[in-house]
Amino acid sequence: MNFNWIEACMQREEQYRLWSNVEQNMEHFKIGSGCLYGGVDSVHLMQNGSLLAAGSRDRYLTLWDLKNRDNKPVVSLKAAHQGWIWSITSLDETLCTGSWDKYVKLWDIGEGYSEKSKFKCKAAILCTHYESNEIIASSYDKCVYHIDPRSERISNQKYHKMAVLCLAVDDRFIITGSEDNTIVVFDRRAEKIYKTLQLDNYPMCMSYGLGQLWVGDKLGQVTLLDVTTYGDFEIVDTYDVGHMGKLTGIKHSLGSVITSSMDKTIKILEPNVEPDAIATLTSHTMDIAGISFQNDVLASAGSDVSIGIWRPKNATYSL
User: Looking at residues 8-29, what average pLDDT do you find?
Assistant: First the structure.
């Protein structure tokens, strides 16, 4: 791929400006009391960071319009699943959720916020990827599920020995990380495993794109893999970035790498081979289950029955 160094420098400078002085440059608030009644396991930002979806331990699926300052939900869907909602993703006006109740569900967020369809797998769903003609989901039963939402056909593949905890997908590869301490790169076109990587510690989360794969592990460390030469997936190094618990979320861009951890903190890191912390966010009082980042808006899922929101001051967000 052709790396855009000029754009990377501009984004890095902007992310450093925003996060190096959080109180001055970022608006921060928490959503919780009166809106949530259980710890939050998953958050997902959509529509340029203006719409937020969250799954909480009370089995509710809740959406907020972040353009409104009152923090009242647009909709709160009771018993959206019969288990914890562990994964949320979206495509256009459709939301996709995966749960410990073994179901993957699609929701219409354009009209009525209604359930469109549901697909039952054989075990808890831990991570999902949704594209126009396929849903790909990783599961506790060591499988990767392939769901055709048009025909409702469900198939699965098993190339891990333990639960598949994290997932990243593009048009060529399906990348999965498992409790068996491996990352498997599956070639979608050739329909076979392209590469298997053995790690020292099992991966908990990953962020893929821009010629890079960033992986967070159970010890709170971050591993960088180089994918600049398409398909290489070579490990560059593993870094101790200062977390004291398992990593639960990681998001990277040209300007930053953002991590969340069971140590109650979020770190904003410089996106280089020595990822020093630009800022450490400490607004949660319990484990952070995950993060979402879009259009400079950051959302965090808190086990303390709250969602943290950070966004640039004076920014406008339109649909």
Answer: 94
Q: How far apart are CA 148 and CA 135, in angstroms?
A: 7
The pTM is what? Answer: 0.95
Per-residue pLDDT tens over the stretch 211-250: 999 999 999 999 999 997 656 899 999 999 999 999 999 9
Instruction: Report whether 279 contacts 20 (CB < 8 A).
Output: yes
Confidence of residue 319 (pLDDT cuts 50, 70, 90): very low
Burial of 190 (0-12, 13-18, 19+ CB in 10 A): exposed
DSSP 3-state of 14: helix
